[in-house]
Amino acid sequence: MARYLRLYLRYFGQNIKSLMSYRLSFLVGLAAFMARQFLGVAFVGLVFAAIPDLAGWSRDEVLFVYGFAQLGRGFDHMFTDNLWILAWRMVARGEFDRILVRPLPPLFQLLAERFQTDGIGELVAGIAVTAWTAPRLDFPAGPWSWALGAIAVVASFLIYTAVKLALASLAFWIKFSQAYLFAAYKMADFAMYPMNIYPKALRFVLSWALPFAFTAYYPAAALLGRESVAFGIGLALAVGLVATALSLAVWRAGLRAYESAGS
Amino acid sequence: MKAARYLRFTRNSVQTMLAYRANVLFYIFGNIVQTLVLWYLWRAIFAGAGSGRVNGFTLGEMAAYLLAAVAAQSAIGGNAEDVISEEIMEGSIAVNLARPLDYRTRIFFGHLGASLYNCVVVSLPALAIGLVASAELGGAGVRLAAFAASLILGFALHFFYKFMLGLTAILTTNVWGVFNVEAVVSGFLSGALVPLAFFPDWARTVTGLLPFASMVSAPALAFAGKLTGADLVRTLTVQGFWVVALALLSSWAWNSLVSRVSVNGG
Amino acid sequence: MIRVRNLSKTFVTQKRYPGFLGSLKGLVTREKVRTVAVDDVSFDIDAGEIVGYIGANGAGKSTTIKMMTGILTPSSGRVTVDGVVPWERRMANAANIGVVFGQRTQLWWDLPVTESLTLLRDVYGVPKGEYEKRIAFLDEVLGLSEFSGSPVRTLSLGQRMRADLAASLLHRPKVLYLDEPTIGLDLIVKEKVRKAIKELNREFGTTIILTTHDLADIEELCRRIIVIDSGRLVYDGSLDELRAKYGRARTVRFHLAPGAELDLAPLSAEIAALDPSSRTVMEDGELAVTFDRAKAGVGAVVQKVLARHEVLDYAISETKIEEIVKRIYLEAEAGR
C-alpha cells in the first residue's frame, strides 16, 4: 500500500512536470471548467428571476444541490480522466500494450498516468457554490454534517468513476467507447436538479440503473433534512461500493478480451 | 470552382458518420437527454410561475422554441473545428495545403456533409415534434419558412465562426478545453439553453453585440412565432451582416496564421 | 527459458464493405470475419539465445510476440516464459521481460529521458546505487548522455530507439523482445543499435527475440531464425543450416541490350526445364535468374539467355538471405 502511494506520488510529480511545458493549455482547461460552472449557476439565477420556487425548492436549495454535484464530479475528473483516453484511442491504437508489460496493476498505472487539472475548476466552483449557499440553508445542522458531507462526496466520486470505468472498459471489445461515456455523462446532468421535476420512470433509471441521483440530489437532500440520512447518504455509499465492484468486474473481463491493434 | 471535386468531401464526411454510426447515435442520444433535462425543468418552472406566461413565453411557445433550438444547433453543427484542429495537431494539414484545392472551401464541404447528416437524424425529427407541440400557435407554414431562411444565414455565419475556432489549435494544445468552454459559452449566449428574453437588460445588450444570437436564437424564435414582420426582417439583416463580417474575419485569421501552420506541420 | 506449444490466435472482426454504397450496406448486415493470425506454433528458446523471428507483414509475428509478453490471451495453446504463463500472471512476467516496439515509444512523451528512466526505476523497484551502475553501462553502450535531458517528443528516431532500449533494460530482464528495433533508422544508427544488442547479450546472457524486416539485422545478430508465414511456422533452425540448404542458389543478372525484344515466358520455361525451382524475372531493368547450382550449371543458364537475347553484361552473385526467405515463403505457399 505504501509502495503504491509512493509510486502514485512519483507519477503525480511527473504529471505536474509535463504540465509545466503546456502552461497555457493548463490555464485554458481550468478556465473552461470554471466557466462551465459559472454559467450553470447563472442559468439557475436567470430562471429564478422569473419564478419564486421550483417544485418546492428555493433558489439556494437548487444551487446547493448543483454545487454539491460538482464536488464528486470534480474529484472524479481529476483522478480518473485517463479512462476517457482509454475509451477514445488507447485501445484502438494499441497504446494500452505498454501498460500490460509493466509490473504494476494495469488500472493503477492507467489512473496514475494522468492527473487532470481541469477537474480543479469543477471542484473550486463546487466548493464556492456550496459554501455560499450552505449558511443560508442552516447547514451545517450539527457536528456530524461535515462528516456526512464528506462521506457523500466519496460516494459520489465512486459512482461517477464506476460508471466511467465500466463504459470505458467496453472499448476492450468495441475499440471506441467514448460516445457511450459522453451519453452517460449527459445523463448525469439530470442529477443536478431536484428529482421531483422528473417523471417516475426517469427517476427510477437515475436511481437504480445509472445511479447519478445518488451523486448529488439524494445526499444533498439528506444534508438539508429533506431525506433521511440512511437513504440519502448511507444508501449512496452502498450504491457507490456496489457500482465500483461491478465495474471492476467489467474491467477485468475487458483485459482478457483486449486484442491490441494491428497484426 | 469545380464543385464535383469538393462534393467528394461532403460525401466522405457523411460516409464517415455512417461508419461510426454507433458513436454518432450515442452523441445524439446525449443531446436528446440534454433536451429532456431542459424540458422537465421548464415544465416545472411554468408550473411554479402560477400565471400561464413566463417572460412573455407560453409553455407551448417554449416547447417550440426549445425543439427548434435543438434542430438549429444540430443543423448548423458540422465538424469544421474538429477536422481543422486534428489536421493541425497531426501535421497532415501541410499535405492538404499542398493540394490544388482551396482549404477553406474544402473544409466547408466536409462540414456541410456532417451538417446534412445531423439534419436528417436530429433536426427533422426535432422539428416534427416541435410542429406537433406548437400546433396551437397556427401558421406553421409561415413559421417554417422564416425558420428556414434564418437557419441558412445562421449556418453560413456559424461555419466561418467554427473555421476560426479550429484555427485555435495553432495557438494552444488544449483544444479540447477550448472547444469545451466554447460549447458552453456559445450554448448559453446563443439562447440554446434559455431564451435571451430571460437575460437581464445589460446581458441582452452584450448578446446583441455578438454573433451567437444569430446562430440559434434567431431561427428558434422564428419557429416559435415570436419573430414577425419588421422584427423578422431586422433579424435577417443582422444575420446577413454577421455572415459578411465573419467571412472577412476568418479570411484575415487564416491568412495571418497559415504561415505558422506550414512551419509547425513541416 | 521460453516454451511455446501449439499456440493459436483467431481474431473475429466485423466485415466492412468498400465505397459509399458499402457503408450503407454495413448498416444492415453484420457479417463476422474470422482471421487466424497464429496457427499452431510451437518452439523452445534457451537462455542466452538471440532468435530472429521473421515473416511478411501480417504473417503473425507481432501477434506471437504479444502473446509471449502477456498482452494478448491466445485462443488456444500454451506459453511459459521462465516458468510463468504470461497472460495469467502479467505482473510476474513483466518483471522478467523487457519490450521495445520500434514504432511506438513506451516513454513519457513530454518528459526528458532521464525523468522517464527514474520513474521506471521506481516502477521496477531498482535500488538507487544499482540504478547508477546500470545507467553508466547503458550510457556507454547506447550513448544516452547525448540527449538524456531532452523531452522524448524532440528526439530523432534513432535517439528515441536508444532511449527505449535503455528503458527496457533498466531492470535487467531475462528476456528482451525487440519488435522492429531498427525500422526507419539510418545505417550508422542501425549499426550502433545492433552493437548494443550484441553487447547486452554477451554481458548479461539476455535472451533476445527479435522481429525485423531488415535481414541485415538477422545476419549480424542471430544464429537461429524462426520463419512464420500466414500464421504457421515454416522454418526453425540455424542460419547456417538455412544457408547450406538454400545456399546453393545462385543469381545471375543480365544487363540486356537496349531495344532487344524480351519474351520472358519461353525463356523462363527453358530454364525451368533445368531446375523447376528456378525464378526468372525482370528486376530494376535487368533480367535476374535464380536457380540451384546443383541442378542447373551457371554456364548452361548463361547460354540459354545468350541464345535468345543480346546481352551487354552479366554478373553472378551468391543468393542473399532475402532471396532465401522469399523462397521459403514460396515453398510454403506452394505446399498449401
Account of the 3D structure:
- The complex is a heterotrimer of chains A (263), B (266) and C (336).
- Chain A has 263 residues and is mainly alpha-helical.
- Chain A has 13 helices and no strands.
- The longest helix of chain A is centred in the last third of the chain and has 29 residues.
- Chain B is mostly helical.
- Chain B has one domain.
- Helix content of chain B is 80%, strand content 0%.
- Chain B is built from twelve helices and no strands.
- In chain B, helix 7 packs parallel to helix 12.
- Chain B is globular and about 60 Å long.
- The relative contact order of chain B is 0.14.
- In chain C, the strands form three sheets. In chain C, strands 5-6-7-3-8-9 form a six-stranded mixed beta sheet, sandwiched between helices. Chain C has a four-stranded antiparallel beta sheet with strand order 11-12-10-13.
- In chain C, strand 8 and strand 9 form a beta hairpin.
- Chain C has two domains: 210 residues, P-loop containing nucleotide triphosphate hydrolases (Rossmann fold, 3-Layer(aba) Sandwich); 71 residues, Alpha-Beta Plaits.
- Chain C has twelve helices and 13 strands.
- Chain C has 336 residues and is of the alpha/beta class.
- Classes of the chains: A mainly alpha (263), B mainly alpha (266), C alpha/beta (336).
- Chains in contact: A-B, A-C, B-C.
- The interface between A and C is medium-sized, with 27 and 36 residues.
